């Protein structure tokens, strides 16, 4: 009975997410037609101070995977279409959420949702725009080409410490992870692979963002790590199959590849630049914007809405298979 209640809650949350998506799009369409935003009752007026604003453009900050996967290309296409310049900066999902909430940026990107109870993450609207897969990466010369989800758990828990245990050479495994527990990649691994947001990893080294982590894997023949497919494919690394499935465009779109998550645009409705931001929201959801996303080898969110319901199964699997600890 308890499991049925949990399942019902998950389905309700998934449907609520779809409702929020369409409601948010309607909100963007309405806001874009106004020359200036109307502040919510009682809400403070947000003052933005980034360099891009003084130049008359927009400042986007956040998730490096979102930046590489679609934002750089989308910003260029949007500027060519509208003349509105967008300065694109990384810094991670947490920056993408908190800088936008604090008014330090006009909008941002995140590969995780807001953390309940964290005041610095309240007030933003997160709009899913694409799907990203979490992938295991290693050196190009490593003979190991496939890994199972159970083996991934073993590596992260320190139970598997030698490549020989994975069918590779007799060499120690160097596990690289993101620093802390609230990064987009780290939080998603904890959710999907372990069903435990507080899970500790037995790592060789921790990195402040995905870019340095990926570059370190390029340089270390004994390294292993997890990151987003959207940025991994642009690195000189080997992307391992997971449970025998490669993270191809079609496998991600149809849900055959098991580890995936949405990439979000982060918006503050009280931003003084909300009219311009809304124009970008309209653009990224338009057929033209979705073509830009596809050309980068990324699945637009609206192209695979069935994955929302598959996320319910992901959560159930994580709870059933991921709740063992050291």
Blueprint (SSEs and pairs):
Elements (H helix, E strand, L loop, with lengths): L1 H31 L18 H4 L3 E5 L1 H19 L3 E6 L1 H9 L5 E4 L14 E14 L7 E2 L1 H8 L17 E5 L5 H11 L10 E3 L2 H10 L3 E6 H4 L5 E2 L1 E2 L6 H5 L6 E8 L6 H12 L1 H9 L3 E2 L5 H16 L5
Parallel strand pairs: 1-2, 1-3, 5-10, 6-7, 6-8
Antiparallel strand pairs: 3-11, 4-8, 4-9, 4-11, 4-12
Helix pairs in contact: 1-10, 1-12, 6-12, 10-11
Please describe what this structure looks like.
The protein has 326 residues and is α/β, with parallel strands linked by helices. The protein has two domains: 2-37 and 45-132 and 259-313, D-Maltodextrin-Binding Protein, domain 2, CATH 3.40.190.10; 133-248, D-Maltodextrin-Binding Protein, domain 2. It has twelve helices and twelve strands. The chain has helices at residues 2-32, 51-54, 64-82, 93-101, 149-156, 184-194, 210-219, 229-232, 249-253, 274-285, 287-295, 306-321; strands at 58-62, 86-91, 107-110, 125-138, 146-147, 174-178, 205-207, 223-228, 238-239, 241-242, 260-267, 299-300. Strands 1, 2, 3, 4, 6, 7, 8, 9, 11 and 12 form a ten-stranded mixed beta sheet that branches. A two-stranded parallel sheet has the order 5-10. The chain is globular, with a radius of gyration of 20 Å. The two termini are 29 Å apart. Mean pLDDT is 83; it is low at 1-54.
